Amino acid sequence: MSVMMVRKKVMRKWEKLPGKNSFCCDGRIMMARQKGIFYLTLILILGTCSLFFAFECRYLAAHLSPAIPVFAVVLFLFALATLLRTSFSDPGVIPRALPDEAAFIEMEIEAANGNVPQGQRPPPRIKNVQINNQIVKLKYCYTCKIFRPPRASHCSICDNCVERFDHHCPWVGNCVGKRNYRYFYLFILSLSLLTIYIFTFNIVYISLNSVKVGFLNTLKETPGTVLEVFICFFTLWSVVGLTGFHTFLVSMNQTTNEDIKGSWTGKNRIQNPYSHGNFVKNCCEVLCGPVQPSVLDRRGIVQDQNGLAPLENSTPPPGAVTTSPLISRELPKEPVTPQDVRPEALEMSTSAPKKSEGSRGKEK
Ligand SMILES: [Zn+2]
Ligand SMILES: [Zn+2]
Questions:
Q1: Which terminus of the chain, N or C, has less C-beta within 10 A?
Q2: What is the pTM of this model?
């Protein structure tokens, strides 16, 4: 009798990821679950640009220059591409500790802190690391069960720790972090230019028409143009202001999260250890440095211990553990630099002898 080996539907790792994300296209697209405002962003951009292309562009191409719609299309496509790249990608989510790893870290923390008498608060779970001669505190995440790498933070909306966390942006429907910050910056920069462009040429269109039929008649005849001017006017202030703010952050190699917390200013008086002290170098690092591959391996197949995808008529050997790590441990092997302490490097640091940490148990 021939043995029919019929494969079950394979389960991919994104189906088992614990954060509050939603996935499309079998894990290729990753976003936050709350996407209402992202759809509003899309409607505003697509609606305003469609009106501009349908009415003013045709008129201006015929009366002024055919280059006007060409440049508008290029800006529109660039803004849309960077928006979708920001929204649909992994912002730099740090995998949660597996149960074994979490138990090991807990054991280490307890060993370092000693027995805390009943009724007393245990010391805060903090580790200090030195980066460019500055002491930086690594906080323990009680949800992800890891010591967060420097600059990482836990997003309460997506329920993930994100590397070089900037902020959660409901307008793009995703966290903005290490892996998508440059696309976010390019998006707001191109959207600013597009808004200024459409606003300016709407004013030109209204002026040209006003000469012919009068200002009030132009407004009556072109309600679409009035709506575009209205949308662009309000978008201008917010988006151009936001782009200016992020240009400042990029030039200082700072994140929004660090700026809000005042990590490198005010009472802390700690110099930003990530800044090169040079505007050009900071911009190059933030906008042109290499993008790390995602460590989530979302499309990886959940395998059994033998490395095989599940088969319908196969029975696991007695005592076999069928749970496998959700996260690929084949992380990119890169040198650990002060600028970029990888989570795996920190995991290694947790296995260092703790004798000396006992005496540092009173760290605040
Ligand atoms: Zn976390
Ligand atoms: Zn988020």
A1: N
A2: 0.79
